[in-house]
Amino acid sequence: MEAIAVAMPLLIGVLCGMTASLEEQAGKFKVLLGSTSPKIIAYVSKTLLLILMNICSISISIISYLLGLKFILKVPNLSYTIFISGGAWLVAGSIALYFIYFFISLMFGTGASVLIGGAGLLMTSLMNTGLGDIIWKYNPWAWGVRLSGLNGMLQFKEINEKLKPFFIQEINIGALIVIFSIICLFTVSLIWFSRWEGRQTFE
Q1: Where does the sequence pass through the membrane (predicted)?
Q2: For the chain: N or C, fewer Cβ within 10 A?
Q3: Rounded alpha-carbon distances, angstroms, from residue 24 to 50, 58, 63, 108, 169
């Protein structure tokens, strides 16, 4: 789960970059900008498609991992709840990144999206260490790995009961920030896209 979370920014950067590149090749974004009226419907549809692909890829990864643990490594008494809830937090924590990277891809191209995706991978790795203990809640690149990790800690029976309230508080605060950020990013992206007329040569 942690490996998926760390690699997620780079994968999102590549996927959003490829999607924007295909739209650019299809008549300089004319399909995206002119296929529906109002045009924000096309933008919302494309963004939802990207998020749906993210859900499918994470689900396939988790299912494959669980099948390997159960039938190849023969691990007994697997707790499926940890992986399912962890995957859900991973999806929720990555939604904001899709708005960020899709914007970068449309405005500046695939190269910029992949470059920032690589930087995001490093950022996520750092935020998963002690460096991110305080600031992770305010860093979109840390949400997926931290929320899924905290959720996993709560599921362990061996955890100190005194630490559970702290983990629950961290998850609740982080979740509120994630929800608020997604709403803000979605609103801002709709306003921006409704005024965007395609990438210019000087952008």
Answers
A1: 47-68, 80-101, 107-127, 171-193
A2: C
A3: 17, 27, 35, 11, 44
